[in-house]
Design goal:
Helices cover 0% and strands 48% of the residues. It is an all-beta fold and 126 residues long. The strands form 2 sheets. Strands 2, 4, 5, 6, 9, 10 and 11 form a 7-stranded mixed sheet that branches. Strand 5 and strand 6 (58-60) form a beta hairpin.
């Protein structure tokens, strides 16, 4: 099993940047695919970005492609989400997720993940 804790959210003006972090416990962190999801008020949770357990493959939602970058440091048991050129519509609670998958590929379906962080609020003002 792995436990994940996400952090790094905050209030930022449109056009600004934030970096979210997801720290995971467990000796087998490098075996887990990781992802970020977000949920805005009154909306369903949506996929943001995912990274394979090796870090060799990534996947992004169209709405964040070119602005957000997911990365991982297996030596530090941490996954990052670098968010640039933030827009008010990026405002949401962001959740880190982890799970084991047979294939070394990013996974974008939220029901495939069983380990979730508590969420970190990102607010982008216009």
């Amino acid at each position: 099993q792995v436990q994940v804790r996400d952090s790094g959210g905050g209030l930022v003006q449109a056009g600004g940047s934030l970096r979210l972090s997801c720290a995971a416990s467990g000796r087998t962190f490098s075996s887990y695919a990781m992802a970020w999801f977000r949920q805005a008020p009154g909306k369903e949770r949506e996929f943001v970005a995912a990274i394979s357990w090796s870090g060799g493959m990534t996947d992004y939602a169209d709405s964040v492609k070119g602005r957000f970058t997911i990365s991982r440091d297996n030596g530090k048991n941490t996954v990052y989400l670098q968010m640039n050129s933030l827009k008010p519509e990026d405002t949401a609670v962001y959740y880190c997720a982890a799970d084991l998958f047979t294939l070394d590929s990013p996974q974008r379906l939220d029901y495939e993940y069983h380990y979730w962080g508590q969420g970190t609020q990102v607010t982008v003002s216009s």
